[in-house]
Sequence to fold (147 residues):
Amino acid sequence: MKAEELDKKFDDGEDVLDLFNLTTLKRPALETQAVSYLGGLMNQQLWSRVKTKYQLGKLIYGKVEFHASFGVFVDIGDENVEGIIQIPDFLDSGAMIPEMYPEIGSPLGAVVVGYTEDDRNQVWLSVKPSILQKSLVKLRLPVVNQV
Fold:
């Protein structure tokens, strides 16, 4: 279809999204990149899959990818989402400073504590000792009878 035909369909109010495969787009001289149609079915399906794969409280493994002033980005081996550990999610108490971040490229285990369901596509992670302990050791707590 020529660009003029597409423009006319768009101007006439036709749904032109059906004419494209929105799961991948090819940009000139760049690799194919997965994209999400925000607010659409594709985004809902992506987050359904992400939340199943990276369940809250689940321990996952990745590699430190990048340092930022607010935390670190973690490669969790998924092309659709990235992990992020923000400064408050490093220590149970005390002050965390960027100089204390794990080295880029170092492996780490972290617990899934949330998600950023927008164009950033982030899985929030925590390496707080108390959070890691809860994930690693499943305590069997006694049931308390309530009368």
